[in-house]
Amino acid sequence: MFEVFKKEIRELLRDKKTLIFIVALPVAIFPLLFAVMAFISSQAALEAEQKVNTYAIINGQYAQSFTDKVFYHKSFELYKGEQTFTTVAELTEAVRAGTIDMGIYLPSDAKQTLDEAKQSQWQVVYNDAKAINFLFDRVKELAEEFGDDLRIEKLLSYGISEQQQQAI
To answer: Where in the cell is it found (predicted)?
Structure first.
């Protein structure tokens, strides 16, 4: 049995192509290649996560606490250029041109809309074509916080205490 093994090893060492494909690729090259790919992708994700995005909000006075949360968030910076935006189309053009990274359009006062038992339809414009994009998740998180605050405030005005709200 050992003689057969020795013969196979000698034959393997004689044929360099087989040695490379059977030993070198699986043992050394593939793990090295996967390590480099993992490092590059983690660096890209880290860079995308730490990027500070410029934004513009149209009608920010309709949701002042949301506007303040976005302003003080570490990942967002208010657009300070000369261009002004008044419509969603202008926001879309600015995102396409790279002037801003994100635009938010607030069509109506969120509190007033809630008092009228309607839903406020906000529009967020951003470039979703990027491979790694944390932008929408961050805005969604801030919008959900704002919505939760509005809901709590409205339920308190109906006489439902915070303890009762937690049970719901």
So the answer is: Cell membrane
